[in-house]
Structures are given as structure tokens and as C-alpha cells.
Design brief:
Helices cover 79% and strands 0% of the residues. The protein is mainly alpha-helical. The longest helix has 25 residues.
């Protein structure tokens, strides 16, 4: 197994650690969970860089890397909803976008096309992870609201962008 795939597996392994720390609720557990989240998020950027620079792009990585990102982000967003920091409708927008883009990729793959991660998707991931990190910190409620709206806005924009740029994959001919 190559280095990039090992980092992806590390991110997957850190997701339950992140959640367990959050739910244990010991003093400063929120900050320990934040540290785990940051480490997991950094593995996303590092494994992508390694995979591209060393030619270590694999089918496993193409599948597991985005899946690990989605589960990590969803875990944090659901916890924020449970804590009253994020409305459920905002999390639902993120979930629907992820399912829709995944469905688009599956339809495209069935037609022999590959939809690679686009710039808008990468920006969405980076801004969402940054927003999540900020929401773990003791910031004012208005700043939390700004983070939520940024996450929703980049999620909607990138979802629309994927569909506009890949509408030929939905052609029923």
C-alpha cells in the first residue's frame, strides 16, 4: 500500500477517535477533538499532494479519499447540529449535495466518463473544513452563523458547478 493510501486510511481511523473524544465530554475534549479534526483534515491535503506528485493515484484512493472527507465533515456537522450550533437544514443541504454529486459521478462512470474533483469542489472542501475548525473555537454566535452560511454557499455553488460543467453526463440519449 502506498503512502497516499496509508494517509487516507489514517484519516478514516481518526473519524471514530474524533467522535469518541467529542462524546466523552471530558475537560477540553472539544479542543482535543479539534486537534484530531485538524490532523485528519491535513492528511487530506497531504495524501492528495503525495498521490499526484509521486504518481500514486489508485482506484482505492479515488474511492476512499472523498468518502473519508465526506464522513469526517458529516460527523462534525451532525455534532454541531446536536449542539445547536448548526441548523439541520444546512446539514441537509450539504448531505444532498454530496449524494447528488456522487450520483452524477456514477451516471458518468456508467457512460465511461470520469468526473474528477473540480476547483469548486476543492474550494468547498477547504472552506468547509476551515469553517468547522472555527466553529470549534470560542467565537461569537454571529461568527458561527457566518461559518454556517459560508459552508452552505460554497456547498450550493460547487454542487451547481459540477452539474453545469457535467450536464452532458445526464444526457439520456
Amino acid at each position: 500500500m502506498n503512502t497516499a493510501n496509508k494517509l487516507t486510511l489514517l484519516r478514516v481511523a481518526l473519524i471514530p477517535v474524533f467522535l469518541i473524544v467529542l462524546y466523552l465530554g471530558f475537560p477540553y475534549s472539544r479542543y482535543v477533538a479539534l486537534a484530531v479534526f485538524i490532523i485528519a483534515s491535513l492528511t487530506d491535503f497531504v495524501d492528495g499532494y503525495i498521490a499526484r506528485s509521486r504518481g500514486q493515484i489508485t482506484d482505492f484512493g479515488k474511492f476512499m479519499d472523498p468518502l473519508a472527507d465526506k464522513v469526517l465533515v458529516m460527523a462534525a456537522l451532525v455534532w454541531f447540529t446536536e449542539q445547536g450550533l448548526m441548523p439541520a437544514w444546512a446539514v441537509l443541504i450539504v448531505i444532498v449535495r454530496e449524494f447528488a454529486v456522487t450520483a452524477l459521478r456514477l451516471v458518468a462512470a456508467d457512460k465511461g466518463r470520469v468526473i474528477a474533483a473540480g476547483a469548486s469542489g476543492k474550494v468547498k472542501t477547504a472552506l468547509t473544513m476551515a469553517g468547522i475548525i472555527l466553529m470549534f473555537l470560542p467565537i461569537p454566535p454571529t461568527a458561527v452563523t457566518v461559518c454556517v452560511w459560508v459552508i452552505v454557499a460554497v456547498t450550493l455553488y460547487s454542487g451547481i458547478d459540477y452539474f453545469v460543467k457535467n450536464k452532458q453526463s445526464l444526457n439520456c440519449k
